[in-house]
Amino acid sequence: MVYIGAETIQSPLGWTITDHFEKLQSGISGITFAEREGWNQSDVYLSKITALPGTGKLNTLFRTAIDQLAAGIDPGLLHSDQTICVISSAKGDLDADLNHPFQALLKELVTAYQLKHAPVVISNACVSGVMAINYAAALLASGKYAHAIVLGGEVISQFVLYGFQALFAVGDRPCRPFDRSRNGVTLGEGSAGVVLSREASVFKEKPLQYLGGASSNDANHISGPSRTGEGLYRSVSKTLQRANVKPEAIGYISAHGTGTVFNDEMEAIAFNRLGLEGTPVNSLKGYWGHTLGAAGVMEVALAMQSLRKELLVASMGYSEPGTTQSLTVLTSNQPLTSPLFLKTASGFGGCNASLIIRKI
């Protein structure tokens, strides 16, 4: 059995998991107007952490996450030779080193926390976070390690922002996932962390249970998802099989929900193919933007809080259906009636990943 807990998040909404759940429950967003920060000094909406230093932003985020994780587990776990650290980030610290955006960061973390093993980096576009948790769980299940610290982190850089603008993917107002009037992504920055372990006793608060996960690649297009939702359909189908869970048992879906026409439509099609159109679903990107490689870990951490508190938060920005297939998008906070949630993620190149977690 693999347990998961000690979750934490850092974003413009705050520095703790408590900060975030309270803000989301109250319908507060960290997305703000950023004057002349886009390509050619264009105005954009971003979710930026203004308290971060000018340099070493990602290092600061990861160290904050690790410090908070350490406070929620057995203090000896962090330095154990039975513990592996898995890091998810799409781009790393590009501003520090364009050619080697992870190298210096990893060395600093190993030294600062006396890690016994070099961290493993999962960098696979926007599915990185979910894949990192799945990879960590697989390492534990294999018996190679007893514990895993999973960190997700991303900071906004001109390279990433200008690239998304070149694809005409950035909206001119805050993102509105699954809504008819959506018109693009809002980029964000932040970090999050969770701890996985084969031992429930290492957690100071009762952990949840990781049931299973999977990934799939439909290789549809360099940036566009499959129009039939094939990759996501296969990923979730495999996840349900590995977790030994029927679709009707899922109480909540934390979707990828970027607020782009192709992504939202693809997810709606895939969920309908899976018989999940009646399951409550939200996207959390209306609160802190799309944090790319960190998104999966941040959204899993918040969904874990929803399980603990038995409360689902509304999908910010949604008011009118914007997909051809029906979805049960949360328009208000609602009680959670099932102990299971499904997390999905999709990214460039046709990659898709998913996982299921249960309250025990």
What does this structure look like?
The chain has 360 residues and is of the alpha/beta class. The chain is 29% helix and 22% strand. The protein has helices at 17-25, 57-70, 103-113, 128-142, 158-166, 230-243, 261-273, 285-288, 295-309; strands at 2-10, 32-34, 44-47, 83-88, 120-122, 147-154, 187-188, 190-197, 208-217, 252-254, 280-282, 311-312, 328-329, 334-335, 340-347, 351-358. Strand 4, helix 3 and strand 5 form a beta-alpha-beta unit.
Low-confidence stretches: none
What about the largest sheet? 11 strands, mixed
Percent range for β-strand residues: 15-25%
Helix content: 25-40%
User: First CA to last CA: what distance?
Assistant: 12 Å
Number of strands: 16
Notable traits:
22% strand; globular; alpha/beta; 9 helices; eleven-stranded mixed sheet; three-stranded mixed sheet; 360 residues; 29% helix; 16 strands
Walk me through the topology.
Layout: E1 2-10, H1 17-25, E2 32-34, E3 44-47, H2 57-70, E4 83-88, H3 103-113, E5 120-122, H4 128-142, E6 147-154, H5 158-166, E7 187-188, E8 190-197, E9 208-217, H6 230-243, E10 252-254, H7 261-273, E11 280-282, H8 285-288, H9 295-309, E12 311-312, E13 328-329, E14 334-335, E15 340-347, E16 351-358
Parallel strand pairs: 3-7, 4-5, 4-6, 10-11, 10-15, 11-13
Antiparallel strand pairs: 1-8, 1-9, 2-3, 6-8, 9-16, 12-14, 15-16
